[in-house]
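User: Continuing from earlier, I have the next pair ready.

Assistant: Great, send them over.

User: Here they are, in order.

Assistant: Folding the first of the pair now:
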Amino acid sequence: MTEAAPIRVLIVDDQSLVREGLALIAGSDRSLEVVGQAEDGRAGVAAALQLRPDIVLMDVRMPVMDGIEATAKLLEHEAEAEEIRVIALTTYDSEDFAVRMLAAGASGFLLKDAPGEDLVRAIHTVHAGNAIIDPSMTKTLVNRLTQNNATDVAEDTHSRVEERDRMISMLTARERDVLEYLVQGDSNSQIAAKLFLAEVTVKSHVGRILDKFNLPDRVHVVIWAYESGFQR
């Protein structure tokens, strides 16, 4: 049997110690290959377009060009960056930056102090076409999203509520149950435990929710929920 090609990873961070640490963590998994490093967003965009990695680990706060602008500029190159996925690396005091990274097109975010196995798992998750939200940041992210969208929701409450209710009406009762935990950033295994379901069943429910809402991943479910004023 032919061994699968490794997942190619580019690391973009302005701190050399962080870059080296991330490289060591990623390099500990034989299915991952670190193909390059860059010290700021501008260099990261250039490296990504040249190296065509599968995954870019993108720091948020960097000199020259921050991770938000770099992510947006990279993903503007639709042909060259079509298969590239960005994972934002952030800290506890930058929830607003995390929201802006998601809006720029990142497939998720992870705290820099997350365990190494969480980073490896996140890379595999995003490479498989899914998204990743660090559960420990969900509450603060929700608060930030709610604050940022309070004015917009108030200005157009009626139409937003109608559209939100229309979308929710497409779901079965069990899918609504799954949705409530999904918007909190719970993983499939966590949802399965809370609803006493098999994990494969939860995965099917999540897939149907994404299809019915025409959303690409669970990150955008969270964004949809708090832009529309959805609450548990």
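And the other member of the pair:
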Amino acid sequence: MTLTTDNTTGPHEMRIAILGGGIGGLAAAAFLNRAGLQATVYEQAPELGEVGAGLVVSPNAVRLIRRLGHIDTFLDKAVPLEVGWEFRRWDNGKVLSAEQLTGRCEELYGERTYVAHRADLLEAVKAAVPEQWLRLGKRCVKVNPHDGGAVLSFDDGTTADADIVIGADGVHSVVRSVVATPGPAEYSGMCAFRAIVPAEAAPEFARRKAQTLWIGPDHHLVHYPISGGRAVNIVAFAPAGDFTDESWSTKATVDELLAEFDGWDPRLTELIKAAGTPGRWALLDRAPLTRWSRGRLTLLGDAAHPMFPFFAQGAAQAIEDGAALAQCLADDLGNPERALETYERVRIERTTKIQQLSHARKDINHLPDGPAQLKRDAGLAEGDPLLRNGWLYGHDAELAVKEAMV
């Protein structure tokens, strides 16, 4: 087999390979480009399309996106939230707690919180990545590390040599199996449904600039507007039963989704009835890693810290990873092993905490009515939820690296 290095860097520069062209992989590429470094992004899909649905983009991610220079691309379709984390009771819609965001979010954290279609966030990050860095239709099947980096083998029979390898290749990461002790993901016992409702078909309450969570026994459902307010994103969680397919392309029916929320507030079932064909996938579970890096290989995003979506931080943490990793490499490129160790040290405690908190919400959101549910609801109403999340929203991933390297 012939060794082919299709990187765009010169022979005197570090050849940085990023496996995965999702939000985390492209964020890493964008911040490397901003730092004056070069990379090649290998993505298995033939094109960067509209996979996925809506997501929340909180201030800790927005401030980093702004630094990439293409914030207008993001703001063109993102919806600024006026109300965030609006928890409602399942049967009557009683508001249990809500973050009032307008004005206060910018005042406290310097940026607003937005909701957006995943494809719109991806496009904004991709705008900061040189087109010639992208290699589409390249699925890596094997990573062979050596003292100076690694050889990447692809399913089309080609190979590439890299000095640094960044595994942004998701929960089934090929790089993860080399960096950490390999082991299969476990099924969580939950599945998720996702659907998008055209704004004209959605009830008025769902078109508000609010991130609303309806919580009840064994289930919860989240909705918010996306795509400049032209659509409403729905994601719902329910017991999986014997359903174990984790593919985002698996479909369900509106009747199946309705059946899961039978007896819930009629306003919510009205919204579900307006949905198109829902997607359905099983949620995978992995314990937090104790290490992300090995030699000149490292991980980011779901490859490093797959988390349940209950804290709405998956995309934001992948962007933080990309920014922190680029900062570490730019500041210590002469010693890439040490740079990757610094990256891991700066990021792993924070992402592990978010993983664990997200995991805990699985049970907290789905309590049956009773004493524990009443205690949870009372806790939601206590204090100021926006201030309570200061450790999350106020974080600056690049500043954290600079402080760690002093």
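Worth noting for the second one:
The first strand starts at residue 16 and ends at 19. The CA atoms of residues 345 and 404 lie 9 Å apart.
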